Amino acid sequence: MKNLCIGLSIVSLLFAALPWIRIQSRAALFVLLFNFFGTAWAHYVALVGAVAALLGLAFGSVLAFIVGLVACVLAASHVHAVTVPHDDALARGLGGDWRKRIGTEAERKMLQHRWSWRVPSAPAAEVTRDVAFATVSGAGRPSRSSPRTRLATWNCTRFMRLEAC
């Protein structure tokens, strides 16, 4: 059981250390996949590190306890760094009065927290059937009664300019 605790704590330490490593060489791109897992699963890695540390303490493995504790601290600090509020970031980018300028409707649609247990539902997609999105040369444009779709067509016969339908 000590070997399982040590193995669990070492694996959690490897995943917990990956978000703190900056990959700068193309030769290390194979580590990038594990880096993605380490960042996405950081809260689980912190939990596994804590469990490995507690199991190491229960079964008398000092190595599993220390390595699991370090993994737990590294992963938890990454989770904290990612989820800490950055209220001043929008003020730096958009100006100090950005809340007044965007309006209450847009602010209501913004995420209220940086992390959530549930993903907010996406709005329903707009579907418009039978829309003319291209014209045949010489046949002219779609009729004016056609609905505007905010799609753009490339008309090569008119000096290659972009026209909105």
Describe this structure in words.
This protein has 165 residues and is mainly alpha-helical. It contains six helices and two strands, in the order H-H-H-H-H-H-E-E. The chain is elongated and about 80 Å long. Strands 1-2 form a two-stranded antiparallel ribbon. The model is unreliable at 154-165 (pLDDT under 50). Helices cover 52% and strands 5% of the residues. A hairpin with a 5-residue loop joins strand 1 (152-155) and strand 2 (161-164). Helix 1 (2-17) packs across helix 2, helix 1 packs antiparallel against helix 3 and helix 3 packs antiparallel against helix 4 (62-83).
Q: Tags for this entry?
A:
single chain; two-stranded antiparallel ribbon; mainly alpha; disordered C terminus; 165 residues
Sum this structure up briefly:
The protein is mainly alpha-helical. The protein has 6 helices and 2 strands; from the N terminus they run ααααααββ. It has helices at about 1-15, 30-40, 40-60, 60-85, 85-95, 100-110; strands spanning about 150-155, 160-165.
Q: Rounded to an integer, what's the Rg over CA atoms?
A: 27 Å
Class computed from helices, strands and strand pairing: mainly alpha
Largest sheet properties: 2 strands, antiparallel
Order of helices and strands: HHHHHHEE
Unreliable sequence segments: 154-165
**What share of residues is helical?**
40-55%
The number of helical segments is 6
N-to-C CA distance: 69 Å
Strand coverage percent? under 5%
